[in-house]
């Protein structure tokens, strides 16, 4: 019901209007009255009426001045002017103030009731229109947010060229231009607001693809700065988990990449790390203080290296990879005997999840995995660690190789074409797509979806693996090896080699000599 407040300096009029109408029956609430504008103002602010009926000629603050003040303080309030002065100037001033109704005294209770119902209907119509407008605005915002999230997700999936991405970002009023990018994906089980500081403190674009998950496209002009930034963020996320175990954060962070196309690679890495971290987190949900300390020590291990090897590694490289991946345990820095066990469990769970993810977890394979896993708790020295890793990797790589035909025909053809032609420096997504007779965007999407890597990432990995073999088995110069594996620029080859392996070509050769002892 609408609330009515009356202002008139004549008591008889106030009492007459107040008592002549059955307010409740007519759908109104008579919330009060006052003899002049000065007395009325605080009462109106207190009662917050929907409609004010006021006389024009009153002492202290007259009706027109009261209307000006109310129009400024309460713009949605409806004002009805009552006046015994049939003069044009009053009416014109009332119109200028935008009062709702202007009528002359004397006014009957029935006429006043008719005016009140008319004003009440107007209030209802305005509220409906305001709600409709608000709903439309919310719908526009939701549609814009959905379009924004859809675009950013498709960008991460590699479905846009550089020019298409810049154009669409501009249409959505987003600044996407940067020299370097990396991706953070975080899933919160309780409160997403706990990670708002990332958006507040860093240059990024945030979006979601599902409930309780946020994806950040981080941007910057310096690769070194972004790498330091990503490490700071990683440590803060880990610290949050220690301080708030009731609200764990499952996250993945991709490497810093240049160019917009690099967003896809970083997104794939972040998504994969998050996926595997979810499995590890479930496994280690009940931890003692010793467990937590061991888990901190395990931060020295890069699970991504293992995932990459599971996908693309060769049987001939298992021994060198096993030593490289577990080298921290060999250095004598391990403070807790639990660390070796946790390392082996992390290693085993990652492998199990990889097999399940690719639907290679048949009964026979998992039985062999379980039999090997039973040995882990009895391992005491580094030589036994290496033996365990190598046995497990031989099992997985042989299983993986038997299942390679599970790729779709287009992706398998692309893989075969890359393996046969990676030495061609002109090889690209487009040339491979042309060779297998599909569009580049379709191949890019399907290749990433089925292999877990972008096509360019797979090409780079294949070239670097071939380069590693050549470095091991020949005395060719670096520039010669670069050309042999498809790099026309030896400097670019050296930078890529170090980025992928973490070592220069010279360091890799020296490492090979150490491992051969």
TrEMBL record:
The record, for CDD domains, names: REC_YesN-like
Q: Subcellular location, in the record's words? A: Cytoplasm
One Gene Ontology biological process: phosphorelay signal transduction system
> What keywords is this UniProt entry annotated with?
Coiled coil, Cytoplasm, DNA-binding, Phosphoprotein, Transcription, Transcription regulation, Two-component regulatory system
- Organism classification, top ranks? Bacteria, Bacillati, Bacillota, Bacilli, Bacillales
* Modified sites of kind 4-aspartylphosphate: 55
What's in the GO CC field?
A: cytoplasm
Q: What is this protein called?
A: Response regulator
The source's superkingdom equals: Bacteria
Q: Select a single GO molecular function from the record's annotations and give it.
A: DNA-binding transcription factor activity
The record's SUPFAM superfamilies line, in alphabetical order, gives: CheY-like (SSF52172), Homeodomain-like (SSF46689)
Q: Where are the transmembrane segments?
A: none
Name residues in a coiled coil. Answer: 116-143
Q: Does the keyword DNA-binding apply?
A: yes
Q: What is its main location?
A: cytoplasm
Which species? Answer: Metabacillus sediminilitoris
